Amino acid sequence: MEDNISAAFVGDDLFNTYGPCKTCVKECSNAELLMLVMKCVNFAAVKHKDQRRKDTEETPYINHPIGVANILIQEGNIYDPPVILAALLHDTVEDTDCTFEQIENEFGKEVCGIVREVTDDKSLPKAERKRLQIENASKRSYKAKLVTLADKLYNLRDIEKATPVGWTAERVKEYFKWSKAVIDGCRKTNFTLERELDLIYANRVARDREVCGCKKMSLSKCH
């Protein structure tokens, strides 16, 4: 990890503060941060151990949260520890038996708060959850928006590589359209991630138009 990742967790109960000023906090060494990140990776891996992605190869699900965290660091130049930990944990409550209480106990209030912001309420119908993601995207904190952008970027790239098992072309098209609506609510958060997302969406739209054009041409020839 780069040296600038050894910043303090301001306001996080994992670290001791020495006064009311936000600069009066304990700084983490690289060793402490490495230990915490590996603890988080292991925690997420255990929670997701029986899950697979929807690709034809049934990729282990843990590849996804690790990939989201990697996008934030490698492409978004984000080195804020709570954001990276939240990225690793962002699907644990939504998709496993993990609870917010567990995350708070293990990784602190700030990390838990970010995870809470990006977690859907699975008691609601899927259509309502998707609607709420669009509606609430702009209301999320800066750190939660970062996780959202990286999550969408990973998923869209995955779909570009291979259509998920059981998905129709129409479902893929609707997923891209829905993702763009969520992304639009997270604008002015990270230029690099937003640019990559815009490029993927633009390429998808261009390909869809080409397909439509081919269909129209073939139909006209039939007549």
From TrEMBL:
It is an enzyme of class 3 (hydrolase). It comes from the Eukaryota. PROSITE patterns: HD (PS51831). Its EC number is 3.1.7.2. SUPFAM superfamilies: HD-domain/PDEase-like. Pfam families: HD_4. Keywords: Hydrolase, Manganese, Metal-binding. Residues 61-156 form the HD domain. Its cofactor is Mn(2+). ppGpp hydrolyzing enzyme involved in starvation response. This is Guanosine-3',5'-bis(diphosphate) 3'-pyrophosphohydrolase MESH1. It comes from Dufourea novaeangliae (Sweat bee).
